[in-house]
Amino acid sequence: MMTEKFKILGKYIKDMSSETPDIETFLFVKDNISKYQLDIDITSKALKNKLIEINTTLKFQDKEPNEKKSHYEIIYATIIKVDDEVKDKKELEKIILCDVPTKIYPDLENSFLNLIHNSGHPEIKMEKKIDFNKLYNERFN
Predict the structure, then answer these.
(1) Whether pTM exceeds 0.85
(2) Tally: H helices and E strands in the chain
(3) DSSP states of 90-101 as a string?
(4) CA angle 116, 118, 65 (to 5 degrees)
(5) Per-residue DSSP letters for 39-91?
(6) What is the spatial distance between Cα 39 and Cα 52, in angstroms, rounded to a whole number?
(7) What are the C-alpha distances in Å from 26 to residues 66, 74, 90?
(8) Over the stretch 70-129, which tens digit does the pLDDT of each residue have?
(9) Please, which residues bridge with residue 78 across strands?
C-alpha cells in the first residue's frame, strides 16, 4: 500500500441545486430521466501553507434539446494539505484529479443521489462508478 502524500483536512457540500420548474416538467422528466447523463468536473486552487481546495462538481442533466428539463448539480469541496516532499507538478496533478476524488467519491455520490431521490426520482442509481484513474490517464495521454 502506497502511503498517501496528502491529508484531507475538511470536506463539505459547497453548493447543491435541484431545479424542476413545474409539475409538467416533473412528469416529463420522470419518463425521460433514464437518458440523463452525469458530468464531472474538477477544479482546484492553491491556498497558503501547502493547502489546496479541490472542487468536484457533478451535474446530472438532459443533453437533448427538450423544452422541459430538470437540473441537478452538486459542488463538493475538499481541503487537503500536501506533504512537503511532493515537488513534482505531475504528482500534484494526480493527487488533485485522481487520488482525492477517488477518496471522497462515495460521500459525494451519496449526497448527490439523496438530492436526486429527494427531488422525486427515488429509482435513480449511479450504475457505473467513476474511474478517476482512467479519466486522468485519458486527459494526459
Answers:
(1) yes
(2) 4, 4
(3) HHHHHIIIIIHH
(4) 40
(5) EEEEEEEE-STTEEEEEEEEEEE--S--SS--EEEEEEEEEEEE-TT---HHH
(6) 23
(7) 13, 19, 44
(8) 999 999 999 999 998 888 899 999 999 999 999 999 999 999 999 999 999 999 988 777
(9) 11, 54
Handedness of CA 133, 136, 138, 141 (dihedral sign): negative
Give pLDDT tens digits for 5-25: 999 999 999 999 999 999 999
Residue 62's nearest CA partner among 32, 36, 26 is: 36
CA 81 to chain centroid, in Å, comes to: 20
Instruction: Lay out the sheet containing 71-82: strands in order across.
Output: 6-19, 71-82, 51-61, 37-46
How far is Cα 89 from Cα 113, in angstroms, rounded to an integer? Answer: 34
How far is residue 68's CA from residue 62's CA, in Å, rounded to a whole number? 9
Question: What is the distance between the alpha carbons of residues 40 and 46, in angstroms, rounded to a whole number?
Answer: 20
- Enumerate domains of the chain plus CATH numbers: 6-140 (3.10.420.10)
